[in-house]
Amino acid sequence: SLCSIAAKHTSTSRLNESKRNGPALELLSVLIFSWSAAIRKTEEKSLLVEVMAPVTCIVGSWYMDVDSKLRSAMDSSGATYTYPDPLYILFNPWNKDDTVYMENAEGRFEYVLAHTGIIWRGSYNSLRPSPWKYGHFEENVLDCCLHLLRNVGKLPVQACADPVLVARHISAVVNSSDDQGVLMGNWTSNFAGGVSPVSWTGSHPILQQFFKTKRPVKYGQCWVFAGVTTAVCRALGIPARTVTNYYSAHDTHASATVDQFYDDNGKTVEKLNTDSIWNFHVWNEVWMKRPDLGKEEYDGWQVIDATPQEMSGGIFSCGPASVKAVKAGELA
Predict the structure, then answer these.
(1) Would you tell me how many other CB atoms lie within 10 Å of the CB of residue 115?
(2) Helix (H) and strand (E) counts for the chain?
(3) Which residues are designated catalytic?
(4) Domain extent for 281
(5) How does 273-301 read in b/e, with b if 16+ C-beta sit within 10 Å?
(6) Model confidence at 18: pLDDT above 60
(7) Beta strands 60-69 and 2-9: pairing type?
(8) Which GO BP terms sit in this record (predicted)?
């Protein structure tokens, strides 16, 4: 008999196909476009086939077709079986060849598997720990994250294989400022029509509501944006953590300084004095290699920030920027 196994990404046509023929009892491995398949077990009317996706595979939901026909009936159309449930392919921090590989087992538990944590708020002299449930294993959360990749913003399908591009996309679509993403910011005292940011205690209710309504959830501030970002990254297999910075400078002039402007008479120029220092700000760090930067020293933790503060590339997104590069002042 002949057997053809085809993997199809849900947002593309058939991308890759692994075909095999020959004695069913042989252990065969066929590599086509970096995909491989091997027969692991044979029975009278069944085969157990292991299909292995490459580390460069597009992250997302896939469907699997199995086409078969008898050698004695090559002219017939044969039979096709479509596995009814989607197959989810994620980034894999356990795989040494993956760009997001994290060697330390404790780190993988803390930054990928852990579904609860603490987000710090308050001020530098009055720290306020806020328990937070990321909930990235809760119902519909992964489907929501894949919806963000496929249908929100402008991320090409091929870019879903690159954690650098995915992380930048996440920083844009977690806020609603220019693409009707997950969360609407509100820094006023009026939260009519929504939920006060201080009332949220987890990411999954926000993601579940967004997935159900396909409309921005009201409302969030920096720690809520960061909590949701951590959940989205971890759900997709990208190690992530939530980071709080106290007495946090907000630079609006891309000068990497907090500037005050005065006129010739020593009076402040209010329209230019837009820089500020916040009592705290919360952003995210994600773990990955940076082959695009050309230096291994920039591998590791990368800053991303989903709070819509300044535009980058015409949209409200930020990062990923190497933490080592930022601390060294290498911002060009």
Answers:
(1) 17
(2) 6, 16
(3) 281, 305
(4) 105-327
(5) eebeeeebbbbbbbbbbbeebeeeebbbb
(6) no
(7) antiparallel
(8) proteolysis
